[in-house]
Amino acid sequence: MFYKIDAIDTLFFRNASPFDAELSQSAVSLFPPFPSVYAGALRYADISDHPDKTAISRKLKIGFNGIMVDGKVMLPRPLDTIVLPSNEIQTMPLITAPTGSYSLPFVLSGEGLGKGKEPELKGGGYLDEDGINQYLQSNPGNIPCTSLASLIDRERHVGIQIDSATGTTQAGLWYAIEKVRPISLNKEKQGSLQEQKCSLVVEADGVAITTPSVIRLGGEAKAASINVLGTTPAIRTITSTEKHFKLYLATPSIFKHGWIPWWIDPDSKEGVFAYKKRRIRVRLISAAVGRHIAIGGFAFEQRKPKEMRYAVPAGSVYFFEILEGEFDDAVKLFHQKCISDYREGYGFVYENWNRMRYCDRGLGYSLIGAIGANQGGHMDV
C-alpha cells in the first residue's frame, strides 16, 4: 500500500555527521530521508494489539520511498545523463573503455553533448514519472529535470543547551540545525494557477495504520499527516528482446562488495541471480555510480545508534549483458524490487535465502531500462 506523508511544520532527518552542542555544533537535514526513517515511524504508528514492536518490525516491509509532487513521484536523476543548459537531461553514450586500470569494457562519454560547463541543480535533479518512463524506454528526446531546491525551503534554527537541573543556559553549548520545509508550487494548469505540494511517499505492507492520521517522523519526532495514496506510481514495465539492459537505483543500496552486489564476482564481473523458478546470468559491462553515502540510524530497543554502512547513492546505473536468460527475466527479477544486500539485524549473512531474497527496508529499489541506439544499442561485446 502506498502512503502520502505531508509535513505539518518543518522536518529534520539526521545524516551521518556527528552532532554535539560542544564539538560539532551544526547539523543539516537530509531530504528525502533514508528508508529506515519510514520503518521507525510506521512501526510506532501501528494500531494493532500486538505489544511487541519487534514482531511488528519483522512483518513490516518497505518498498518504494521518495517524494511526490502533484500526484506524481519524483525520482533522482540517473547518473548516466548530463544536464543541458535548458535544464533537460540527455543520456551519455557508451564507448569502448581506453586501455588502463578501468575494469569494465565500456565507459560513458559526455563529449559533444553540451556546450560549456554543465549546469548544477542545487540539491540534485529529479525526474517525474513521465520523465523516468521516457528514460527507461531510452527515448532520445530531452527530458525535463527539476532541482530539489525548488521543492523545499531550508530554515536555519539556532539554540543553546539548557541545564536540566537549574533551567539556565550553558555557556558555549550553542547549536544550529538546518531543517526542511516542503513547499507548494503555484503552476499554471488548464488556464489557472493550481497548488502543487511536495510530499513524501512510501510503499509499506505489514502494518495497520489509521488514515488520515498524524505520525511522528524524523530526528525530532516532527508531526506529519499520513494518508493512503489513491493511485500507485505509473512506472511502466519495459519489454525488449535485446541481450543488454540497465538497472537504475531509485533509492540508496548497501552492497557487500562496496559498489557491486555480492552475487557479482568482483574479478570477472559476472554473476547469477535467481529467485524461485527464474534465473539469469549477467556480466557487468559499465556503471555510473555516485560517491558513497553513509547510512546509519538509531536502535530504539538497544537505545544506541546502529552500525554505519556505506551505500551506493540513488541515481546510480549499472549496465549488464545477458549471458543466460532473457530480458523478461531481468524485468521479473529486478524491476521494482529492492536488491540491497544488507539485512537489518543479520548484516550480510542470512540463511533463510528464499524469504530474504529481497531487502524489506526499501534499500536498492530498482528499475529496469533498455539501452537504446543513442546510448550503445546493439553493442559488440
What's the topology here?
Elements (H helix, E strand, L loop, with lengths): L1 E6 L18 E3 L6 H11 L7 H7 L1 E9 L2 E5 L4 E3 L4 E4 L2 E3 L9 E3 L16 E4 H8 L6 E2 L1 E2 L4 E11 L6 E14 L1 E6 L2 E14 L7 E5 L4 E7 L15 E6 L20 E6 L2 E11 L4 E3 L2 E2 L4 E2 L3 E3 L5 E8 L2 H8 L2 E2 L26 E5 L12
Parallel strand pairs: 2-13
Antiparallel strand pairs: 1-15, 1-17, 3-4, 3-15, 4-9, 5-6, 6-10, 7-8, 9-11, 12-13, 14-15, 16-17, 18-25, 18-27, 19-20, 20-25, 21-24, 22-23, 26-27
Short description:
The protein has 381 residues and is mainly beta. The protein has helices at residues 35-45, 53-59, 129-136, 327-334, and strands spanning 2-7, 26-28, 61-69, 72-76, 81-83, 88-91, 94-96, 106-108, 125-128, 143-144, 146-147, 152-162, 169-182, 184-189, 192-205, 213-217, 222-228, 244-249, 270-275, 278-288, 293-295, 298-299, 304-305, 309-311, 317-324, 337-338, 365-369.
Describe, in plain words, how this protein is organized in 3D:
By secondary structure, the chain is mainly beta. The protein is 9% helix and 39% strand. It has helices spanning 35-45, 53-59, 129-136, 327-334, and strands at 2-7, 26-28, 61-69, 72-76, 81-83, 88-91, 94-96, 106-108, 125-128, 143-144, 146-147, 152-162, 169-182, 184-189, 192-205, 213-217, 222-228, 244-249, 270-275, 278-288, 293-295, 298-299, 304-305, 309-311, 317-324, 337-338, 365-369. Strands 1, 3, 4, 9, 11, 14, 15, 16 and 17 form a 9-stranded antiparallel beta sheet that branches. Strands 19-20-25-18-27-26 form a 6-stranded antiparallel beta sheet, covered by helices on one side. A hairpin with a 2-residue loop joins β3 (61-69) and β4. It is globular. 36% of the residues are buried.
